[in-house]
Specification:
Blueprint lengths: L1 E6 L4 E6 L6 H11 L10 E5 L8 E2 L19 E6 L11 H7 L2 H12 L3 H9 L13
Parallel strand pairs: 1-5
Antiparallel strand pairs: 1-2, 3-4, 3-5
């Protein structure tokens, strides 16, 4: 099966043929080998299916075969993106500016302080506002 793969970080698009019975992980490895430029931390990138036809956007599970993910042929060759893995928000009421303010270095450090000091109510409040707790702190790991 042929896919058109957009790679936003490299401003590239590739068309590659993948075996639909192969795992998404194998397709990801094939794509990494086909890139002309290297990606920093390329193994933390994933195949991403943008929202379409009433389906939510999501990263493909690397252990499942490609055929498990229905593709739309309405616009020709099915399209996927190769993106750095981040949380995909399904809530529509989240304000982008509010999320940006929460995910600053200061905001994330404050979150870590609340966790370390056992301030459950403050942690819960930040999470309710949309803070993504799945991040890597470069200073402490």
């Amino acid at each position: 099966m042929v896919f058109r793969i957009g790679i936003p970080d490299l401003h590239q698009t590739k068309c590659l043929r993948f075996d639909p019975a192969a795992a998404v992980w194998a397709a990801k490895q094939q794509l990494l080998c086909a890139l002309t430029e290297g990606l920093h931390d390329g193994l933390n990138y994933g195949l991403f299916q943008p929202a379409a036809a009433g389906r939510d956007a999501k990263f493909l599970d690397e252990e499942r075969p490609l055929r498990d993910y229905p593709q739309s042929f309405d616009q020709g060759v099915p399209y996927l993106e190769f993106r750095y893995k981040t949380r995909v928000y399904k809530q529509t009421n989240l304000d982008e500016k509010q999320l940006a303010k929460l995910h600053t270095k200061t905001g994330l450090r404050k979150f870590l302080d609340y966790v370390q000091h056992g301030s459950a109510e403050k942690v819960a409040r930040l999470l309710e506002r949309g803070l993504d707790p799945n991040y890597h702190d470069s200073d402490s790991g």
